[in-house]
Design goal:
3 strands; 3-stranded antiparallel beta sheet; mainly alpha; about 240 residues
Length: about 240
Amino acid sequence: MKSIVNILLRLIMVACTAISFFLLLTSNVSLKINDTQAMGKEVINRVVQESDNSNLKIGVQLLEDTGLEQTLLDQLPKKYQIEMSYADLYRLCEKYNEKGKLSTTDLGLTSKTKLEEIINEYLVKQINNKLDEKSEEISHVITIYEYSIFGVGLLFLLAAILIIFGRAWASIPLTIAALGSFAVLWIFSNEAMTSLQSRVYSGILVTLSSNIWLGLIIAIGTAIVWAFIVSLMKRIK
């Protein structure tokens, strides 16, 4: 009877480890804009300020004077959202290494109107400018990131194997993997939000989804519970 309970507990802990890994790897970091019209207006102003084309400035002023600018802004979707997971970030790193820049397609940005297209292009332009400014540093970060995803996977796998064999220190690789992957997403979301707020629109929010937090909580909870279970089993013996 004890052996059956022992096996069941190990299987439950392994399942929790797998769920945590899945949630941390596939759950999304979300870029949200709740007032697209304000963003559209700000992007138009920034494009005009950064352009040396006098005709563009005259054209934008004409649109504003005739009320057509507001008509274009009204065509924007009420909310704007991009979602990206740990795995998606890895694919973006590969794309950036191949081409030296990112495109609207790489980021999954679509547009139904010309204004949306301009906003998307401007957004990608600012992202690429930021990457170019710190190209050497970014290159090192991307290399570390690409290896880290395999490292995180191996640590989760190691934790699962150690749990199967009843080793108490399975909690260590599990905790390191969970905190490491969470930290990467946390740093990415904060860096992205700070940069985009200063370069594109102050109302841009980049947040971690609740499933990422859930994945972290499950991993830490599993590590603590597993250490307690092993300790309890040793006392019973």
